[in-house]
What does this fold into?
Amino acid sequence: MEEVKNTRVMFKDYIQGYPKVSDMVVTSDTTICLEIPDNIVDQILTKNLYLSCDPYMRGRMNRTLEQIYTTSFIPGRVMSGYGVVKVIETTHPDFKKGDLIWGLTNWEEYSLITNPTKSLIKIQDTNVPLSYYTGILGMPGMTAYAGFYEICKPKKGDKVFVSAASGAVGQIVGQLAKLFGCYVVGSAGSNEKVDLLKNKIGFDEAFNYKEEPDLDAALKRYFPDSIDIYFENVGGKMLDAVLYNMSVHGRIAVCGMVSQYNLNPYDGIQNLIYLILKCIRMEGFLVTDYYHLYPEFLATMLPLIQQGKITYVEDTVEGIENAPAALVGLFSGKNVGKQVVLIARDN
Amino acid sequence: MEEVKNTRVMFKDYIQGYPKVSDMVVTSDTTICLEIPDNIVDQILTKNLYLSCDPYMRGRMNRTLEQIYTTSFIPGRVMSGYGVVKVIETTHPDFKKGDLIWGLTNWEEYSLITNPTKSLIKIQDTNVPLSYYTGILGMPGMTAYAGFYEICKPKKGDKVFVSAASGAVGQIVGQLAKLFGCYVVGSAGSNEKVDLLKNKIGFDEAFNYKEEPDLDAALKRYFPDSIDIYFENVGGKMLDAVLYNMSVHGRIAVCGMVSQYNLNPYDGIQNLIYLILKCIRMEGFLVTDYYHLYPEFLATMLPLIQQGKITYVEDTVEGIENAPAALVGLFSGKNVGKQVVLIARDN
It folds into this structure.
């Protein structure tokens, strides 16, 4: 049986504060057999092509985790996350050799996956970059779609504000909102990202929050008549400023709070009284509640992508050895667009 | 034409921090003519029977007010609020002498009201204490009803927590929730109120938040399996503790934040990240959006009251000269039950 080297990213130990590259260890010490023994049923062996770096993974580096759809990483064990993988061996009747699938895999070159139907979805359409299934056609895309349509319940003409707007989710929300007939403004953390938002992704306006000493004034500049929908990806001071600038009957979809994940205690939010004064609905959600919409989502998104009506900016690093730095970079906004790690090309 | 003394409560000037009795002036300097001149059309002259003291009135003592359904008091002018009044003269075709009505009136013995159809509702059923139309059958009752059914969207068996539970709104929410088949716990600020909640109003459990050094521990004692619905009347530290103890898919109806109205800046709330982790909907509302439900509300509440299935605790002071102290008392929790000021009996 053929044994090959299997480079892996191991989780060192639970952390507090900002993650560092040294909280993970890349090791090439282990090998993997590229065949599945005949007596092992219902497994697949995958070659991992793309790994996805997502902000929610910071929570998995905590000892205790209250997220309802995932678990903490285990110290000394391989890390895991979303990815695009190719089946190279299978004893599972639902998968055949060569299948391309996306979903949960390990941070390693090859993975032996038990129970693959639970966490992996077959890729039907390969007329788009495969990496898109870690982003616009995967978990972040589904998050943007469910958050915008199901939580924000948009109306044509709504004034929409998106934070972390050039990120994996934000850039999709902004484009869906534009296509829906909304006025859309995004915030991001560099002038390069602001430029992307305005000139490539198609936001009406965008601003660099790091250059705004007064977020309230910045929001009033772009929303003199208040914000109807806020798609919340950052939390903290931005949320406080937004609450003060919301419209009556405004809606806030709380998708993420990336500015808070490394803090203890969290920032205090002082303007919640505006929830009453402006009759605002503020709703947190997890994409896991919405995967039943995935077929409808694909049917919407694929044509938009193929007709060039929606674009997607990715920030791709090559090589599994660069995965830890890519993940860590999310929390200082180093990535420009969706952060992907290319492990192997599909060949 | 008969002129009578008309004692009034005047608003002195905009305030910051906690209101004081001295922020208002009771004056008997003015008289009012108890007839309406023939050439003045569409007015009513009312004898004010009950005035209602409500926490939202604190906001009207600020120079700037962002509440969408009311305005700030005007310095040097008479105060206003909800009340129960009797028509003693009328030139409006929709009202006749002797009509009992509830709604917005002035803080004075007699009021001349223009545009009465905009702000006053005729009382059809007088088989209940008239003061109830400032409480369980008026604005607070409608608030409880809309907040519980429309915002909380309860399910039988839900575990419900109500803060300021013996107040004008809280005691109704708790009883509606019990009748709906929920487990209901309330918090209040004295042992007398806790006793009322448990032994008269029918909450399953209640606790005195002032005697709980650890609100998280208190909530875990009564909700070992988490809170499905929180009816928010207080804000601040209690909200933070509740967020940490909510169920997945929990709902928070944000009705009031009485602990915050006199603070500047407001307390910071640190646990909003649980909105995401637990997929919580947190929704502010104002009763003014729900008055179209008033007929349905009355049809529900009147039989419940008349059959003794729901009770209502009022804290009544007599005499308009005592209205300022009654209003001020709301913000230290001096009132036990709904705070009403009796101005005159219906005779």
Notes: Residues 144 and 173 of chain B are 5 Å apart (CA to CA). Chain B has a mean pLDDT of 96.
